[in-house]
Amino acid sequence: MTNNNKNCRICNNNIKPFMSFGDMPIANGFLKKNQFENEYFFKMQTAFCNSCKTFQLIDQPEPTKMFNDNYPFFSSLSKYMKIHFEKFSENILENYVKDKNNSFVIEIGSNDGIMLKNFKENNIKHLGIEPSTNVAKVAKDKGIETISKFFDENLAEEILKKYGKADAMFSANCICHIPNLNSVFRGVNKLLKDDGVFAYEDPYLAEMLKKTSYDQIYDEHVFIFSITSVNNIAKLNGLELFDAQKQITHGGSMRYMLAKKGSRKISENIRHFLKEEEELNMNTEERYLLFKNQCEKSKKDLVDLLQKLKKQNKRVIGYGATSKSTTILNYSNINESLIEFISDTTPLKQNKFSPGMHIPIKDYDSFKSNYPDYAVLFAWNHKKEIFDKEIDFVKNGGKWIHFIPEVSIEP
Ligand code: SAH
Ligand code: TYD
After folding, report:
1. Are 126 and 116 in contact (CB under 8 A)?
2. pLDDT tens per residue, range 271-307
3. What pLDDT, in 10s, does the model give residues 222-263?
4. Distance CA 92, CA 90 (A)
5. pTM to 2 decimal places
6. Which ligand has the nearest atom to the CA of 347?
7. What number of other Cβ atoms are within 10 A of residue 326's Cβ?
8. Pairing relationship of beta strands 316-319 and 408-410 according to DSSP bridges
9. pLDDT for 68-114, tens place per residue?
């Protein structure tokens, strides 16, 4: 029996699930046929803490089940993300790395080095923390200094002894993965110089609610942050949220800028976002009950459409075997009978099967050389990049199926 009464991961307040997604596999756990029998599942439930206002998963698999020597997400596969990280790096370099010869920067969740590469090229002392050893190896091979461990307060102390304090710490699409967040924030606080900054980006709760993009909820994303929650979490750990900027990446993200308490002027942006989140009703339980209903409708609309196309004998495939798609497929119980295969450019995912629903994953050529009638855009956050290169699919009569912000067909 699952215990439905648990405590908030941040403030220990009692929390209750408002939504259950049923049994979920590891979102990035693409597998071979002989692994089907021993596939791991966990009960995925979401809760909203009424005290610190943090949206979170009640249970999360052990980090090593998700991040190991077989992690299939390689950041540098997206050329748009490369550009994004060049700009993010420029921003840090211009504003927070004053003395290039004597500065030190740290990235948490540095993956294949997509961001740190820009610091290495500027000869800046840097350190990447990346527990998934296979992606870390790609970074190391590029000459990026990386340690393969999970960041927390203990690791921060080790780093402090060996490397000293940092001028800037940053992270993207990683802090929301780490369950012991207070330990992470305390570690950051210990590692930062007195005027240092911690900049991190993650999918933004307001965007998820606006778009009903419930596919942001999966094992790795133990938190979906808002300005209100990050403001509270920072305060609990001696840090302060002093600025924030919306980002278009990953379907709508927020960049949070933190520093030691009292060390920087608080930007007007923070007051603006706090007010906006109140107005959007984001700090009340009712908003999450509405979200639950919106998710159920979205699921029904998608399944109805796929069943209708099946009756019409249309060929439907999936485009992009994202971790997000694991939530859509398992929550909606969509298998190979409705989606023939999913095309993906990641070699480590190809010729395997999707987690839980076991839809075959095929290479890009399987899509390109024999266009289907419909393609479900699972990698909807890369829509621009994909649409730019798939003009021929549409010219040949192909149609896209979207499910964000609602189920629709284009053109
Ligand atoms: N920053 C990259 C990678 C995001 S994927 C980008 O935005 O594209 C998240 C990464 O965080 C994975 O590579 C994973 O191995 C890493 N990660 C997970 N838990 C971590 C932890 N506790 N400390 C550091 N990295 C972690
Ligand atoms: P992404 O949406 O970035 O991440 P997540 O797993 O966090 O949901 O994943 C994009 C996936 O889509 C990745 O497996 C690569 C694939 N992809 C393609 O197959 N073709 C493309 O043109 C792009 C941009 C991505």
Report:
1. yes
2. 999 999 999 999 999 999 999 999 999 999 999 999 9
3. 999 999 999 999 999 999 999 999 999 999 999 999 999 999
4. 5
5. 0.95
6. 2
7. 26
8. unpaired
9. 999 989 999 888 999 999 999 999 999 999 898 999 999 999 999 99
Helix (H, G, I), strand (E, B) or coil at 7: strand
- From 67, 322, 361, mutation site for ligand 2 pocket: most ligand atoms within 8 A of C-beta: 322
Closest to 88 measured CA to CA, from 188, 166, 28, 172:
172
227 Cβ closer than 6 Å to some ligand 2 atom: no
Tokens of residue 202, six digits:
């993650």
Is the CB of residue 108 below 6 angstroms from any atom belonging to ligand 1?
A: yes
CA 152 to CA 174: how far, in whole Å?
12
Q: Kindly state if the Cβ of 151 falls inside 6 Å of ligand 1.
A: yes
Structure tokens at 212: 């009903």
CA dist 403 and 384 (Å) reads 16
Instruction: Tell me how far apart the alpha carbons of residues 343 and 187 are, in angstroms, rounded to a whole number.
Output: 40
- Looking at residue 181, its amino acid is L
Beta bridge partners of 197: 168, 259
Model confidence over 334-350: pLDDT tens digits? 999 999 999 999 999 99
Contact between 245 and 269 (Cβ < 8 Å):
yes
Task: Characterize 122-147 residue by residue with b for buried, 16 or more Cβ atoms within 10 angstroms of its Cβ, and e for exposed.
Answer: eebbbbbbbbbebbbebbbeeebbbb
Report which protein residue has its CA nearest ligand 1's atom 9.
174
